[in-house]
Write the structure tokens for this entry.
Amino acid sequence: MIVVIDGPSGSGKSSTAREVAARSGFYFLDSGAFYRCFTFAHQRDGSDTDRFMEKLSGYRVGGRFENGEFRISLDGEDVTREIRDSRVTSGVSRIAEITAVRARVNELLREVAMSNDVIADGRDLGTAVFPDADLKFFMVADLETRTQRRIKQLEEMGLSGDPGEIRNNLEYRDRIDSGREADPLRQAEDAILIDTSELEFEQQVDLILAKIKEIKNRR
Ligand code: DC
């Protein structure tokens, strides 16, 4: 079974998906982490885009689930924490615009989904990566709510962030993610819209769990 949650940065997709996974036995698949991982590789190798493109198929990127956490590695090294760095966050939308990078990430995502019950979060999962997903959600929230959430998320990881900078970065990424030619951020026609600005975290988790149950009962 494949459940997808798409939406802009900071709308609550990944924390919701993570909790749903913990409660349903699904495998949580963080598609943004794959784009971040390739961005980290680009920066690690000197931010030389030509060289990066030449090496693209040679990078070994692996996602795995460990003690309830999604972890990602690059060439055998765990980079789960490094990919949350503000430098990666600032650069990721530009790397995610590259069609060949998107094709590589999609391949990796579909591989994982082939053998697991998966709940995945991203931007184009319902429209491009998993158009036949069993359930699709599109999660939105206003900019201020999203900024505060990002700050909290960073704090939980022992990192800090300037609110103005985070707000600008969210707006910037919204613009690039929605405006790019290759599979932009878009709500799939058959996706259920959830505005999390006014919802309690538990409510959005329960809503998705209820829909999953509904589908399972129908089978
Ligand atoms: O969810 P996130 O903030 O970790 O995502 C990082 C970036 O990756 C985001 O700015 C856009 C890109 N992305 C994408 O283009 N398509 C996806 N399915 C997931 C993420």
Q: What stands out?
A: The first helix runs from residue 13 to 24. The longest strand covers residues 61-66. The domain at 2-206 is CATH 3.40.50.300 (Rossmann fold).
